[in-house]
Specification:
By secondary structure, the chain is an alpha+beta fold. The protein has helices spanning about 20-25, 25-35, 65, 95-100, 125-135, 150-155, 170-180, 200-210, 220-230, 235-240, 255-260, 275-290, 325, 355-370, 385-395, 400-410; strands spanning about 10-15, 40-45, 55-60, 70-75, 75-80, 85-90, 90, 115, 115-120, 190, 195-200, 245-250, 310-315, 335-350, 380-385, 415, 435-440, 445-450, 460-465, 475-480. It has 16 helices and 20 strands.
Length: about 475
């Protein structure tokens, strides 16, 4: 919907309302200006017959008052070449006479000054309706900065930023962002924790702009937030825990290539716009809409890069196996996002293993250190296997399922070695676990294997999860809807 101002007839135009003492006070002035031909139109906000003039027009729908940003009535505009050149508000006899270049305005008994009243178009109850009807179509509050203000510093001071500069979410940018989805801007998609405020598509778009996303990224951000704002994922828990965890996202399906995501060299690092901004947009929504700010609800002792935003794509084309989403039953043409409650990435270096079994044992040993070597069962993990490591398994004919089972099996440890105070380390399992054999990861889906990374380097990367299960968070995969 267009927001441009209509072209007005040259001369003077007044905006009034009958329910305004100042407007009724100066009715004789308006009659006088109309009789002399100086005033060509009067727009009334509440009564099309006030004042009783042939030039009076009805603006009870407030379209013109809204589009001309009338904040006070009476307002008198000067128009030249169809556009406003200046205006005055309220009633001050000398000011009006100077403005219209006429002497002796008014009549006997009219005071020389009256401040005017608030325009109906700035009524707080009507503003959202008028904005949707005549404005940009956005329902969110518009905040304007002074010309002299540094908008980037101002947004930081308002608390909208995660510490990095954010893009100003102008009406134009937000509307362009909304072009990335077919869904309505006022659709409520979730209650966003921790405050459980309504999360609309428009609010997501605003934060996606600030994060630096392109419109084509928006469907991924929306779907990721729908997944993160569930009881199963427990975003509130991720905020409240003192552990260094946040939503980690990875993408499967054709959309990866459509938006140019990085699934190869440096896929977990900087340099790719989609990778860098999609996860950030999710976190900005949690911060700005849900109220999940560090030092408040967010209680992480140290935090991690996942708190800013961590998102990457699986290299499906280079993988010797089916993709992660295909393993879950999605087909190759479906786009999915997996939201995982994880900490920052950590490398597992193995440059010497030559057989598949050697490498499986080595990667398992690397995973044992996640969170703490003596803590088991409670933490899932993503394992991003590099091309060189994956080739060891592929050359041996191992399927991804076999790799997963082997690594999980090799993380099984004697609980007696993990008990509290064993080896002089107080941390560990309660005595009740003595005599058992326990795997580091849940055998039924605790290890998520994803293929990706540069072609050179005998390294893989693990991303440890937070507490799994009803008391923690469950990772989730959802199909992306545009």
């Amino acid at each position: 919907m267009g927001t441009g101002k209509p072209i007005l007839e040259d001369g003077y135009v007044a905006f009034v309302k009958q329910d305004c003492p100042t407007c009724t006070l100066i009715e004789p002035v308006l009659l006088q200006l109309a009789d002399t031909g100086i005033l060509n139109t009067v727009y009334c906000q509440d009564n099309p017959e006030f004042p009783s003039l042939e030039i009076t027009k009805d603006d009870s729908d407030l379209e013109l008052s809204f589009k001309f940003e009338i904040e006070t009535v009476p307002t008198l505009l000067k128009v030249s070449n169809g556009e406003e050149t200046s205006r005055i508000i309220g009633w001050l006899k000398e000011e009006w006479e100077s403005f219209v270049e006429t002497d002796d305005l008014g009549a006997e008994g009219i005071s020389d000054f009256s401040p005017g009243c608030g325009s109906r178009s700035v009524d707080p109850d009507l503003q959202p309706i008028l904005e949707k009807k005549y404005g940009s179509g956005l329902g969110s509050k518009l905040i304007e900065f002074a010309v002299s203000e540094d908008e980037f510093e101002a947004m930081y001071e308002l608390g909208w930023s995660d510490g990095l500069p954010v893009i100003p979410p102008t009406e134009k940018r937000v509307l362009e962002m909304l072009e990335g989805t077919s869904r309505s801007g006022d659709e409520v998609v979730a209650l966003v924790p921790p405050n459980l405020d309504d999360l609309t598509i428009e609010k997501i778009a605003i934060n996606a702009v600030m994060a630096g996303c392109r419109p084509e990224y928006l469907p991924i951000v929306i779907t990721a937030l729908e997944a993160a704002c569930t009881d199963e994922f427990n975003m509130h828990g991720l905020l409240a825990t003192t552990m260094p965890v946040g939503p980690v996202l990875f993408i499967n399906g054709p959309i990866r290539n459509e938006i140019g995501m990085n699934s190869g060299m440096n896929l977990l690092g900087q340099g790719n716009r989609a990778n860098s901004t999609i996860g950030r947009a999710l976190q900005l929504v949690i911060r700005n809409v849900g109220g999940g700010r560090p030092g408040e609800v967010d209680r992480a002792t140290h935090g991690s890069p996942a708190k800013i935003g961590l998102c990457f794509a699986e290299d499906e084309e280079g993988s010797p196996w089916s993709s992660f989403s295909e393993d879950l039953g999605f087909n190759a043409d479906q786009n999915t996002v997996t939201v995982f409650p994880g900490e920052g990435p950590r490398a597992i270096v193995d440059q010497l293993s030559r057989s598949a079994d050697e490498l499986a044992r080595s990667l398992a040993m690397g995973l044992l250190g996640n969170m703490h070597p003596k803590l088991v069962l409670g933490f899932d993990a993503i394992l991003v296997i590099s091309p060189e490591h994956a080739s060891r398994f592929a050359d041996a004919g191992w399927s991804k399922k076999e790799v997963n089972e082997a690594i999980t099996t090799h993380t099984i440890r004697e609980a007696d070695l993990l008990l509290r105070d064993v080896d002089g380390v107080a941390e560990g399992l309660p005595q009740d676990f003595a005599g058992l054999q326990l795997p580091k990861l849940r055998p039924d889906g605790g290890l998520l294997i994803v293929y990706g990374g540069g072609g050179a380097g005998l390294f893989s990367t693990s991303i440890s999860g937070w507490l799994s299960g009803p008391k923690g968070s469950q990772y989730t995969t959802r199909e992306i809807s545009k």
